[in-house]
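Quick review question:
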């Protein structure tokens, strides 16, 4: 999907790159699959700020997404491909033969009127969901389950995908979007194809106000803070701030925070890239 670079009629338009939205077919979501979305502004139940730089933004309604794809062996038709303000990927409205409608994460290349199916008997074609055990080696997959029946948690954001590298016993080896190579149970379901909206990484807001519309407040540089506010704060003049680290003092840029005693480490064949 192409992106569009706008003419610099204003200073903010000069650097703005927007999505072409060529594959979007409608701007009216399915009302039966919408629920209100309450925002916290980064505060917990006692009103204390626990997540910084959040607040404001345009009102949104949450689209109920079917991550489990558990309506097996019933064909569904792609009715629309829509923009979802709650995620980077596009979503598809599908209607099953029995009349039920659901939203799913749209794979790249899905077309209106196309039929998809989920289940162990499904063929490894674009948009179909089936167990990893039934998928040919080398296939590009997305929306992958981590535990059988729990629903997709891996490779769900725009343009992301994993590759099926090997199958041995009850485990399959996947190369994940982060670069990590790990083993996952072959019973887990996955969808065929990469996630839609792969050009999302090329988009440029162009101005700070557009970030405010998304609910993101201005971020203060740690080196500009006082020593009481951040480990990198303080110093005379424009001091560098010392070693990069978080507000809680955990080093950044290469420091590994994963526990060495974590039980699932035995399933990781190769760690993700630094």
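Suggested answer, residue by residue:
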């Amino acid at each position: 999907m192409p992106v569009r670079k706008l003419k610099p009629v204003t200073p903010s338009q000069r650097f703005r790159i927007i999505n072409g939205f060529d594959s979007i077919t409608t701007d009216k979501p399915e009302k039966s699959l919408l629920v209100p979305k309450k925002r916290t502004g980064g505060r917990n139940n006692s009103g204390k700020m626990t997540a910084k730089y959040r607040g404001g933004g345009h009102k949104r309604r949450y689209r109920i997404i079917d991550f489990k794809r558990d309506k097996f062996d019933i064909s569904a038709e792609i009715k629309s491909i829509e923009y979802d303000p709650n995620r980077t990927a596009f979503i598809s409205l599908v209607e099953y033969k029995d009349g039920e409608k659901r939203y799913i994460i749209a794979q790249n290349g899905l077309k209106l009127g196309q039929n998809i199916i989920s289940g162990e008997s499904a063929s490894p074609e674009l948009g179909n969901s089936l167990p990893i055990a039934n998928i040919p080696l080398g296939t590009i997959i997305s929306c992958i389950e981590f535990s059988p029946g729990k629903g997709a948690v891996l490779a769900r954001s725009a343009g992301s995908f994993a590759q099926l590298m090997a199958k041995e016993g009850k485990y399959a080896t996947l190369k994940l979007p982060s670069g990590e190579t790990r083993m996952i149970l072959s019973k887990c379901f996955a969808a065929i194809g990469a996630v839609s909206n792969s050009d999302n990484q090329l988009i440029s807001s162009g101005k700070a106000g557009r970030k405010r519309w998304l609910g993101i407040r201005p971020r203060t540089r740690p080196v500009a803070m006082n020593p009481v506010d951040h480990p990198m704060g303080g110093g005379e003049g424009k001091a560098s701030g010392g070693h990069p680290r978080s507000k809680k003092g955990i080093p950044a840029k290469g420091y590994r925070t994963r526990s060495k005693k974590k039980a699932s480490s035995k399933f990781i064949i190769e760690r993700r890239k630094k």
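Why it works: The first strand starts at residue 3 and ends at 5. The chain has a mean pLDDT of 94.
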